[in-house]
Amino acid sequence: MNIKKIGMILWKSLLYTQRVVMIVAGSVTALIVFGQLVLREVGRPFAGYEEYLLLFAFWMYMMGSSHGSYEKSQITADILNRILKGRAKAILQVVASILTFVLCLIFAYWAFTLVQWSLSTKAVSSIHGIPVVWGQASIFVGLVVSSVYNFVYMIRDVMEALGRPAIAPAAGLREV
After folding, report:
1. What whole-number distance in Å separates Cα of residue 10 and Cα of residue 4?
2. 108-122 burial code (b ≥16 CB/10 A, e <16)
3. How far apart are CA 150 and CA 174, in angstroms?
4. Is the pTM of this model over 0.70?
5. Where are the alpha helices (DSSP H) in the chain?
6. How far are the Cα atoms of 44, 87, 112 from residue 149, in angstroms, in the given order?
7. Residue 128, CB half-sphere, CA atoms under 13 Å: how many?
8. Largest CA distance in the chain
9. Tell me: the pLDDT tens digits for 111-155?
10. In which band, very low, low, confident or very high, does the pLDDT at 170 lie, cut at 50, 70 and 90?
């Protein structure tokens, strides 16, 4: 098995896992909201449901955010990218890719320190005692996954700017 095939297997596995987490977290979030509405209607509200809701909503949001990195579908201000052509456009894309990757790493580091702090303080939610770190870990995981995607796209952009074939065609990276 060659390195390209292993890379594609890892790429697809990461994407599959991410999508499963998004689907599960989104479904549980919807069920919690629906369940609370039903319980409130029958006169038995579930105190502290927000603690569970927040946990699953965090995972849904952060996996969705990192999926946006995979799709390259985040909102961008790319007016220069539309005006420039050729080499200048390629260089601008490399600079943007490098900045995106570096900023993502910085935010991932900050999220890691947040997780460390939560572990050291053993912070828990006020009603059900859910460890706060479970929700905060989603920020770190989401940013790490985004960093992986941004790194691969950065390498692809650098290779294209140098006039070399990309490590994989853009369509190949987005296959699944």
Report:
1. 10
2. beebeebbeebeeee
3. 13
4. yes
5. 3-41, 49-71, 79-83, 86-121, 133-161, 170-173
6. 45, 24, 18
7. 13
8. 67
9. 999 999 999 999 998 888 899 999 999 999 999 999 999 999 999
10. very low
